[in-house]
Amino acid sequence: GNSNSNSKPKAGTIVLPRWHPHSGISDVNPSFRTASPIMNNQGYASTIWRNVRKRNKPSLWRHALRTYDRMEAAANDSKTSVLRIERSTIHHEGALLACAKLGLWKEALEIFESVEKESVGLVSNRRKGEGVTDSMVFSLVKACVRSCKKMGGGETTPLEERRAPLDAAVQVVKTVHSHHFPVVARHLNPLAAAYQSLGLLEDAKTLLQQNLGDRSIGPEPENGGESFNVHDVSAKDKASYALLVKGAIVSGSWADA
After folding, report:
1. Are the CB atoms for 217 and 228 separated by under 8 Å?
2. pTM of the entire structure?
3. What pLDDT digit, counting tens, does each position of 87-99 carry?
């Protein structure tokens, strides 16, 4: 029995590691006797998205953010290791979605700016699909809008403080063309609606009028779908016109409505 256990494997035999790693777990674990196996990049992405997808679970959304933050420390430790931990688009998008659900606009802006800084001038990153994406911009917008709503009425929070996240999101949206995708109505409509909820009707109107063009075709049926036209990618949609009409009616300008 001992001779068989100590004998070398036959030629062509596949030698398995001491333990069988699952997807998302690194097979590089030199301290396997004293420490649990560590996650690889896929494992971190799975953990972030598994928690951020949950409905009405703020504690799990925060756990997703903590996992994202732990990746930074793991990345610094892995610079001298065989296993390289590095955050990529899938990790950034998951963290920004968590910020959007929690209304953490400052944290979302910090993540977005770090991604933006890393992607500036890196043509190779853009070729691989890295850098700022449309989903990141939309999550940042949602984080800013939700933060504005969570601040409560004007009696408890000054107006300037409530509009601060909206102003920050507007500045980001105005620069998305530098990331090779256009400004579209779904980026601006939530911000315009939030401005209107604060009573800033002129700001909402200016935001839509200056950043979105008029439709080249239409109007569409009331309950029908909008026909796609490549020239109307950065044009107003039904929701944009509805916001403009609402703002005009509230301000008493029936001619504009």
Report:
1. no
2. 0.78
3. 999 999 999 999 9
